[in-house]
Structure formats: structure tokens, C-alpha cells
Amino acid sequence: MADAIAAAPAAAHVPDPAAAIADAELRDRVRFALTRIGKRHAAALAMRHAGLSYAEVGAALALNANQVGALLRRAELALKKELENGSSR
Amino acid sequence: MDHLADGTLRRLVDDGETLDDIQASHLASCAICRSKMAAIVDDAGRTHDVFLRALTADASGADSDDADSSSAWRSISPRLMRRRSVLLSGPWLIAATAAAAAVCLLAFTPVGTYAQNFLTIFEPEQFVALPVSRSEIVSLPDLTRFGTMTQRVAPQVRDVSGQAAAAALAGFPVEVPTWLPTGTPAVARYAVTSGSDSTFTFSARKMSAMAPHGRPLATMPRALDGAMLELRTRPAVILAYGEPVSSLRGSESSSRRNANDDESRGRDFPPLVVVQAPVPSVRSTGATVAEIEEYLLHQPGVSPALAAQIRAIGDPATTVPIPIPIDRAFGQRVRVQGVDGLGIGDDTGVGGIVIWQRNGMIYGVAGQLRQRDILAIAESMR
Fold it and tell me: Which domain holds residue A86?
């Protein structure tokens, strides 16, 4: 039993049409949510998740590193709220 | 001092070295900041996973006619996927994965809007050895035949500077051994793994499609078909003492490493690893652990003797059976920190593990040491 449970994560790689549809729906939800949280928030999230450092994000948005942290935090909360609202719509 | 700002805490998630000593000390001792930090870590991890999944779907759906698809969005996908590979391939991953497996940190919990539909069906309270033969292990049914696993939040591993930083990032007080055997490196490297969220959905249709020829699987009960389990691992702190033997010896030919997989795996672990994490839980939309266990035990490949052994272990909702190859090691109940735990290994020094649960936390100590030394290390944790 424990072996079977421990082996479970490998199943994440099994192609599954339902999972593909769910991922595509999530993609659309994320894009829509990003359009609603404000340009600076969306830009900070996109840049950070594209691999830019805090300094690079800060340079692009004229912020210091801690301000970038604060912006990211607000952006993540806003995105979370939008995705939750999207689920209930 | 004032509580730490959200921006400071959020930056700490991405860069563990941003706090000065005063801030780190405050964070380690302030329940308010630690609670806030835990929420920030959780939100950051979920956002990261959402981006990864969205971009993965974007990459696989290149022929989508979605009018909202932007070239800018697509342009960051490859970079993000590279970043993901870096996150998941660090030197800590092997130790983290092994240690996490050692203390069974897989959990099933609800997230988001589904939460109200789930019931907790499993919370480990004790670990019990389940002696199995190699043939029994090989013949166990593959869980992937019974449904689909989707990982929604992948665990991330971060190196941190020490005990206080680890406690701050993980959100719980970190215990450390106060005794180590002679010859064990005295200084530990610290890392924190973030939580992970996965779902497993049982599917009778998939089970039928994947049933092996000539060996039909037992019919899936209606209560299981479509039932969803949600798995969640919570932040774990890992202490590693010393370097993996393989890193000290430098590169070796792959042919030699592959010649004996067990020996190779042993060289990939530090001499001593200590893991601690909050107790995980398993939640389900309906199916109970007993129903799931009973169904799986009726599958071809599970011998009647093994099934009887598992049934005899006790309450499946609180007991974790740890399969132990009978030709490699032995498991025994041990007393550690005033509670019952499970010791796996021997007294030859080849290697061993001690696992126990106390006050809502799971602890694991694993090392290439004698069982009695591993137990003494576990007993000394404060």
C-alpha cells in the first residue's frame, strides 16, 4: 500500500485528455485574471516568473528590492482573489 | 522591533539571505511574523505552480485559436520552463526527495474552493514495519492504473543559512540534534522544501483500459469511481551533515554506478540527514482509506498473506505501513522522545532510519550509521 502511494507522483506524467483540458482552462483563467489585476502587478509577476531578479524587476519598474517584494505580494494576493472569483463565476 | 513588512518577507521567500541578524531573530521568535510568512510562502508557491501549469498548457496547445494568446506571454514560456528545471534539479533535490520519502510526507488535503467537499480520512499517528519479499514488491499493483495523478503545486527546495532562517521559512520551530557520533560532521546545511499539492482521481474507465491482458483488475466500487483524493505536503526542514560520498569521490563512470544501483544510491546521500515536517493529512471527496485499502488489496498481485498482514496492522486511517524488504533490512518498534517510533536498519553501520510522530510533527533521522547511534541522535533532538 505504502509503495503504491509513494509511487503515485509518477502518474503525473501519464497523458490524460481530461488533465490537458483542465490545464488549458487554467491557462485561460490565468490570462484573464492577469488582465484584471493591474498592469504593474501583472508585469511584476510575469517578469519574476520569467526568471528576472529583484534588481532587474526593480529597474524595470523603478522600485527597490523590498518594494518589488511588496508589489509581488500584492500581485499574488490579487491573482489569487481573481482566480477564486473566476472559479465561482 | 516592529513586525517585518510584507515586502521583506516576500523577498525572503526568493532570497534567504536578505534579513539582518536582528530581523532573523525577530522572525524566529515572533508568531505573528511566522504566521504571515507561512501564508506568503503558500501564496508564492501556488502562484508559481499556476504559472507553470498555465505555461505548460500554453506550450502544448500551440495550435490554440484563443484570441487572447499573446506573443509576449508565449515568449516567456521557455525561460520559465528553464527556471523550473533549475529549481527541480539542485543538489538538494536528491537528499530532499529521499528524506521526504523516508518520513512519508505525501499527504492528501483540499485546496481552494473544493475544501468544503472534502473530509480528512488519514492522519499518520504511527509507523509500522511491513516485511515484504522482493517478489511481493514487484507484483504490487501500479496505482497509475486506477486513476490520474495531477500535481498542482510542485515542491521547491531552498537552501537557507541556518536554524532560525529555516524556522522562519517553514513556519515551525526547528529541532536539532544535541549529540552526534564521533566522526560525524558537526555543522549541518539547512534546506526547506515548500509544500506541494496533488490530486488523484479514481477512474473505472482508465482502469478498464489499462488492465493487463489475462489479469483483469478487481471491479472498482461505485464509491471510488470519480472519487478525488487531494494530497498536500507541507513545508519540511532538512538538515544534512556532510557531503554525499559521490561528491567527495568525484565523477565515476556511469557503467560502474549502474552496476550496483543500491550502492550508487547510498553514495548520493549525506552521511546523516534529519527531516521534520508537520503531520500531513489525506482528504477525500468520499472514499475512505478503508475502502481504498480493501479495494487495492483485492487486486491481482497482492498475495493473500500480504493482504492479511496489512489488514492486521491496525487502523488504516492513522497507521502508515512502511514496506521493508525482508532480505535487506528489518524494522522494529523503538521508543524515542517518549513516543513509539519505527526503526529500520541494523547495527552494522550500513545505514538506518528512525521515524516518529510527536505533537503533530513527523521527524526522521537517516544515516549511514549504526541503528543505536541513529536512535541516540533522534533522542537528543531539542
Answer: 42-89
Please give the model's pTM, rounded to 2 decimal places.
Answer: 0.54
Which has the closest alpha carbon to B272: B380, B193, B192, B373? B373
Looking at the structure of chain A, the number of domains it has is 1
Q: Give the sign of the dihedral formed by CA B202, CA B206, CA B211, CA B216.
A: positive
pLDDT over 90 at B189, yes or no: yes
Q: Are strands B228-233 and B196-202 parallel, antiparallel or unpaired?
A: antiparallel
The whole-angstrom distance between A69's CA and the closest CA on chain B is 4
Cα separation, B95 vs B267, whole angstroms:
11
Q: What letter represents residue B253's amino acid?
A: S
CB of B199 within 8 A of CB of A16?
A: no
What is the reported pLDDT for B15? 65
Å from A13 to nearest chain B CA?
A: 8
With respect to residue A18, please indicate whether it lies within any of the assigned structural domains. Answer: no
Q: Evaluate if residue B209 carries a pLDDT over 60.
A: yes
Which of A6-15, A22-31, B208-217 is predicted least confidently? A6-15
A76/B149 Cβ within 8 A? no
DSSP string for B335-360: EETTEEEEEEE-SSSS-EEEEEEETT
